[in-house]
Write a structure and sequence with these properties.
Helix content: 25-40%
CATH class of the largest domain: Alpha Beta
Shape: globular
Structural class: alpha/beta
Radius of gyration: 22 Å
Amino acid sequence: MDNQTTPEPTHSIIPGNDLGGYAYPDDVSFVAARGTGSHLIARDGRDFVDYVLGSGPMVIGHAHPRVVEAVARQAALGTHFYILNERALELAAKINGHVPCAEAVRFTASGTEATAYAMRFARSFTGRTKILKFEGAYHGNHDYAQVGRVAKLGHNSLSHTDSAGVPASIADTIVVGEFNDLEMARQLAADNSADLAAILVEPVQRAIPPQPGFLKGLREIADQTGALLIFDEMVTGFRMEMGGAQQAYGVTPDLCTLGKVIGGGLPLAAIAGRRDVLELTVSNLPQDERAIWFSGTLNGNPLSCAAGIATLEVLEDEDGPRKLEASGRLLADGLTEIARSLSIPFQMIGHPAFAEPVFSETEIRNARDLAATNRAAIVQLSLEMMRRNVHVMGGGKWHLSTVHSSLDLDFTMEAARSAMKAVRDGGYLEARS
């Protein structure tokens, strides 16, 4: 038989040449070949200091030896069972031990599934239909999450759909307020109290921190109306504190959704919270009209759970949240000082472990405040950083890992100084998107 060669893999068959969410121009885009620690290596050999970290899951870095070993050990025992397994039990116990609201845990394969189920749980438990959420929050890709996801300046209604293919009737079930506006939330809850099933919030919305008393106020509104309070802790969970934002801010929700960190880089998410709510999903218990159908082929996958357990153990052993915060503060302070030396208005908003650069010195309280800043210049900064071998998301958060070194931070600062000069000298700070 004639020798045959396998053609070089291409990505032209994938629409947009990306996996969804965001894409870079051809001159800076790359195909990832491998990750090691805080670095991502492209197929063409470029070596990037990585602040995307898989959109957050790689909190202890790429290919951490303890995760690699845990996954290999579990793979030898079996990669999937579709039945309760030892690793799922172990990970659920860890979540229960750290997360204040986690009386019970249900696993899903993605964050989108987790938030969709959390909303369904709230509707079933309360017998109501409406969800109060906040403009600019990201709760996944299901239809309900595509209402008020994008702040649209000059748009009169906050309850607008943000993707084609989402029925307009979906927006009738979603009530949208402005993050950090407690009075608006109170009024919206009062206006919809008979139908309000839940208040769904990112406790740190993208990178916008809550104002003092905002989360506590939402807890009070939920208690007064009989709605459930749901924290979307996909980003904040095990990153701000081992118990997430609910531990950091001292406000316990009825339910929370968790993901990213708990899968250690493999697909996994969870809904955690009140046992009386989650037990509505138990198929062999006596049920009433509130019974919830809950299933998923890869729920509690043992390979994902093994990676998650190993990741949480590293965070426990190394006091990971404090490490992330310390490195993040050094990065944020350094970038802010560089901008000041270049006479550029700049700030890093949010928690140091996942802060976001903004070309403005005005306080950012909600999504409209953020949208009013120079987003085009921030996207350009991202491109300039990519050209200098620093991998950052286009206009998004910069994630820290426990393995970002002082050398990584020094390299990033040097790149940032040159990149900010390019943005300033290119006139992008004067242009508006």
